[in-house]
Design a protein that fits this description.
Strand order of the largest sheet of chain B: 2-3
Strand content of chain B: 5-15%
Oligomer: heterodimer
Helix content of chain B: 40-55%
Radius of gyration of chain B: 23 Å
Number of helices of chain A: 19
Shape of chain B: globular
Largest interface: A-B, 27 and 24 residues
Largest sheet of chain B: 2 strands, antiparallel
Chain lengths: ~450, ~180
């Protein structure tokens, strides 16, 4: 039902209507403007009481004339919710009032109940389909929603007699923001998930890599990422098409190239480009499913809005592919704030294996300053330094070497000797490097010297 | 209370008058025992019922079980025209109290039969004994054991005076018989 219309010719004041409790607020408002009589109230109330009496009789098998008021409240709330639901299906408050006048309470209750039951039945069928077509992913939010939350919500709905306050909260974000609660909200989310699954099934091959890149970029694990897989895939696919190629993963250079093209454009031009890319994608995919095509088009429109909001700076919203290249720290790499630094340091301390520590350093640190500080934090054991340096790679070791201060004048091809008060990682680094073969060491020294000169 | 259930508050007076009228129909049957309610008595009984229902957190639609209570108790030797209305009011209140105390495990008819049996039997027409001794015991048993009576414990094995339980031994297991 439209909550507001441009021209309100009705005597009803729509602002007085409470859509969470439509029947009672509508009766109150209609009575205020003289459209609802005392007799009509009595007729409706008697009808509702008769329905309640019937439900009490069914629950007690006719063997008890009274029930605890908490149970009566629950039953009556369910009846009221069904009546409200039937009224909300009317196109306008006036039409809802007409329904209240022309139908008995029992008919309204049955109408609402049938509508809600149809959502529940459809939800059960959809749940089976959605689980059967699940996307193969490590993301735990997606798995929990599919295996626990949605089945749990359907079970809870069936266990309660049409509960009014039935919040639907899931651990996995869908591409659209869904605000409906109750079984209708469950149905709505399942319908969307069915479409998203169908879309993702076409691109499942690159989805995990995309999720890994997202996780790395946002400093979370792929399992714990709170991100929608459909949106990740769609954005990647559209960006690739904007560059005139297939695929859904873009590296930093490609994103910069795309950004250079999008920045000078106006909002409408960007919108047009994204819409065209989405159309091309849909034509290539040939889903032959109108609802899915509409869903994709809507998501593409959302992407246009998002792109325009950041002025075409696609690098700020896109996932950058790491590809097979190792991740380097660099002198001007993004540093961690104090809290994030402390979290990484704690993580390092809690990790036993040197390989695990090396992996954390590679994944989490981008700034050379951060790396030097972290190595000085006492998070790496004496015996672990060699493994860590080996994992960091020669280029990073050369960068670290450029930070080793020495009192001894450097000879042409020789390792610097750290000062006595140097952080403990420096002597370990020189010890590690001294064990390398001459050719490799020479290359690192050359690189280190170049980096030091740059400083 | 939900928005809908609250709609019906404020209709009490009208409903009470209507229910009192219905209650007076029971006089046709109880007159054979020399018992009859006046209109004021009937209103008083309905009022007691409404108060009990409200106080014990229950909901009942229509005249409820009061007419059945009257038909069950009217042949009691302990009721007479002088204490009839007052006793019916007390029994009505006791009935709703017991419904809650027995966790709604007893049907209306089971509870009425039980009350009548104790009232005419062990309690000798005493409402105090009925409420504080017999029905309290019933409520306690239902809450503790889920049944009207305490389960027979003669067959359960208890520890002997030394605190030892009988032990059975076989080749591989040692088990305690409880």
């Amino acid at each position: 039902m439209e909550k507001h219309s441009l021209i309100n010719r009705s005597a009803l004041d729509y602002s007085e209507l409470d859509y969470g409790s439509l029947a009672t607020s509508l009766m109150r408002e209609a009575a205020r403007v003289g459209l609802w009589s005392e007799q009509e109230s009595e007729r409706l109330e008697n009808g509702l009481l008769a329905e309640l009496a019937e439900q009490i009789s069914a629950i007690t098998h006719g063997e008890s004339s009274s029930i605890p008021d908490s149970l009566a409240d629950q039953l009556m709330d369910g009846i009221g919710y069904c009546v409200d639901y039937a009224l909300r299906a009317a196109p306008s408050p006036e039409a809802a009032l007409e329904l209240l006048k022309s139908k008995t309470a029992r008919q309204l209750y049955a109408d609402g109940k049938n509508l809600l039951d149809s959502h529940a039945k459809a939800s059960e069928a959809l749940l089976s389909r959605v689980r059967a077509t699940r996307t193969d992913t490590v993301n735990s939010g997606y798995r929990i929603m599919l295996d626990e939350t949605l089945p749990g919500l359907i079970r809870a709905w069936k266990a309660s007699p049409y509960p009014r306050d039935f919040a639907v909260i899931t651990e996995y974000p869908l591409a659209k923001d869904f605000t409906l609660d109750g079984i209708e909200g469950v149905h709505e989310r399942l319908s969307a998930l069915a479409l998203e699954n169908r879309f993702c099934a076409r691109f499942s091959a690159g989805l995990d890599a995309l999720l890994d890149d997202y996780a790395l970029q946002n400093r979370v694990s792929a399992a714990e990422s709170y991100v929608n897989l459909f949106t990740l895939a769609l954005h990647g696919l559209i960006f690739c098409r904007l560059l005139g190629r297939d695929g859904m993963s873009l590296d930093r250079d490609e994103l910069l190239e795309l950004e250079a093209r999008l920045l000078p454009l106006g909002s409408e031009q960007r919108e047009l480009l994204v819409t065209r890319a989405a159309e091309l994608l849909l034509a290539d995919c040939a889903f032959e499913n109108e609802r899915l095509e509409r869903y994709v088009t809507d998501a593409a429109n959302d992407l246009s809005t998002m792109l325009n909001a950041v002025g075409g700076r696609v690098t700020s919203i896109a996932v950058t592919s790491r590809g097979d290249r190792p991740v380097f720290v660099s002198p001007d790499g993004a540093g961690l704030d104090n809290d994030a630094f402390a979290v990484v340091a704690d993580e390092l301390r809690l990790t036993d294996s040197p390989d695990g520590k090396a992996q954390i350093l590679c994944d989490e640190l981008r700034s050379l300053d951060d790396l030097c500080d972290m190595l000085s934090e006492g998070c790496i054991g004496e015996d672990d330094f060699d493994t860590v340096f080996a994992a960091l790679g020669d280029e990073t070791c050369a960068l670290l070497l450029s930070r080793v201060g020495s009192d001894v004048p450097p000879e042409s091809v020789a390792l610097p000797i750290p000062r006595d008060d140097a952080p403990e990682w420096q002597p370990y680094l020189t010890a590690y490097l001294s064990e390398l073969d001459e050719k490799r060491l020479a290359k690192i020294l050359e690189l280190g010297s170049a980096f030091a000169d740059e400083r | 209370m939900s928005g809908f259930l609250s709609l019906f508050s404020g209709k009490d007076n009208l409903a009470a008058r209507r229910n009192a009228e219905l209650l007076l129909d029971s006089n046709d049957y109880t007159r054979q025992y020399g018992l009859a309610l006046t209109h004021a008595d009937a209103l008083s009984v309905i009022e007691s019922r409404d108060t009990a229902i409200r106080d014990y957190g229950r909901v009942e639609l229509g005249v409820g079980m009061v007419d059945r209570l009257i038909l069950s108790f009217c042949d009691s030797p302990y009721l007479n025209s002088e204490n009839y209305a007052e006793t019916v009011c007390s029994l009505t209140e006791l009935f709703y109290y017991m419904k809650g105390e027995t966790l709604d495990r007893l049907t209306d008819d089971e509870l009425l039969q039980l009350m009548k049996r104790y009232f005419d039997g062990e309690c000798g027409g005493s409402l105090e004994l009925l409420a504080e001794r017999e029905l309290e015991t019933v409520a306690r048993n239902i809450r503790a054991y889920g049944s009207l009576d305490v389960p027979d414990e003669s067959e359960t094995t208890t520890a002997d005076y030394s605190g030892e339980y009988p032990v059975e031994e076989d080749d591989s297991w040692r088990s305690i018989r409880l």
